[in-house]
Amino acid sequence: MDQSPVSPELDNIEVELFVQALQRRHGYDFSQYAPASLKRRVRQLSDQLECKTISGLIERVMHEPQLLPRLLEGLTVPASDMFRDPVMFRALREQVLPVLASYPQINIWQAGCAHGQEVYSLAILLEEAGLYERTQIFATDLSERALQQAQEGIYPAREAQQWSRNYQASGGTRSLADYYSARYNLLKLDQRLRRNVTFARHNLVSDGVFCEAHLILCRNVLIYFSNLLQDHVLSQFRDSLVRGGFLCLGLRESLDYASSSADFSPFAGPLRIYRLASRSERKLA
Amino acid sequence: MTTPAAIVMGCSAGGVDALKAVLGGLDAKLTQAVLVCCHSSSDTVDLLCEVLGRVSPLPVIEAAERHAVRPGVVQMAPTGYHLLVESDLHFALSIDPRVNHARPSIDVMFTSAAEVWRETLIGVVLTGGNVDGAKGLHRIRQLHGVAVVQSPASAEVALMPQAALDIAGADHCVALPEIAPLLNRLCLA
């Protein structure tokens, strides 16, 4: 059994100390991450790096600075797919992009882009809508390693079938294979798709607003944050969006405990697509 | 034994019929939260909630992100996410990689529930076609919760309950029709 017989109390103390070590040694603050998933990820890191205990991992946090990129990736990067939740991408295609088309220049912020699957999905949507030439996508993530992978756009080919189905279900009329080449069990996305993408490091916990966005996608990122941090990030999104700008969250994310949610009105409610309410609407709310 | 605070339940292949039998037999007076993780190929658990809600005396809903765990209510893990429980008894979701090819994974839900509810948790492993749930049930037992496993002979697919028995063992290993009466006894005692 690889499951530790350690008592939950001891585990909790160790995870707390780990968070403190990371903060004091490297300046990254994970204290407002949701505890259950954070604990799972810290344990996994500890196992993957073959530390006997989380305390062993803490020693490495302190004395092996070259480990930092690996730690940040392990603590933050989830698993994603191209066109995950096709109904949401269909709504983007059919309802959101036609509104964005009225702007001469479109700025999109993909916050927490992880390995980039959704960045390429978005680029394909924009390409097919004929909007890509006047769009700038800012794809940001905390993890340097995730950003590198996102830029390379190389994924295991075993995903291709599911992703093709997702693409079709999102209203795609071509073949997803038109956008990648496959060899050695890998598929590589057409690098022309990233011609208008800027990949950049950005920490939602500590970094501020850096662009005026017409659309922000931040799907299944805030689920890892406490209510307090979720609210903080939503207020940043509010400050970044143009009036009437769009915000897309993951399909199961709840805004019920975030006071900044008053600033957003549901656009396609069950699909978690919101629009920034105008100031007067916000006062009433 | 201390009165249980919650029941966690996992299944995959053949799970819908097994869940109907178990949830359908629960006593309406139960005040325990019931958390269910059922592997499925459908996009949502809407239909499953509806089907199970028709047979169960307890309401059946999808567990909602950040919301409080509700006593006396069956709460299903949403499709495509791992379901975890925070120590303040609120739900959290994650899209971390699949565990045992599954998301939601029974192991993930069981493990986080075990650490929250400890000896006041009952874990139930039903029919299923993979080994998910076995490690989680082991963690439940480590923390002195109660393990209930459907007898493999009564399971539509024996692999999952058999793996649970092999890896975690069980406090009660009973046939499908016995599970609801057993849970009622444990919870209403």
UniProtKB/TrEMBL annotation, chain A:
Residues 3-265 form the CheR-type methyltransferase domain. It holds the Pfam family CheR_N. PANTHER family: CHEMOTAXIS PROTEIN, CHEMOTAXIS PROTEIN METHYLTRANSFERASE. This is Protein-glutamate O-methyltransferase CheR. It comes from Dyella lipolytica.
From TrEMBL, chain B:
It is an enzyme of class 3 (hydrolase). Residues 1-180 form the CheB-type methylesterase domain. Pfam families: CheB_methylest. Its EC number is 3.1.1.61. PROSITE patterns: CHEB. Gene3D superfamilies: Methylesterase CheB, C-terminal domain (3.40.50.180). Keywords: Chemotaxis, Hydrolase. The keyword Hydrolase applies. InterPro entries: CheB_C, Sig_transdc_resp-reg_Me-estase. It catalyses: [protein]-L-glutamate 5-O-methyl ester + H2O = L-glutamyl-[protein] + methanol + H(+). PANTHER family: PROTEIN-GLUTAMATE METHYLESTERASE/PROTEIN-GLUTAMINE GLUTAMINASE, PROTEIN-GLUTAMATE METHYLESTERASE_PROTEIN-GLUTAMINE GLUTAMINASE. This is protein-glutamate methylesterase. The active site is at 12, 39, 132. It comes from the Bacteria.
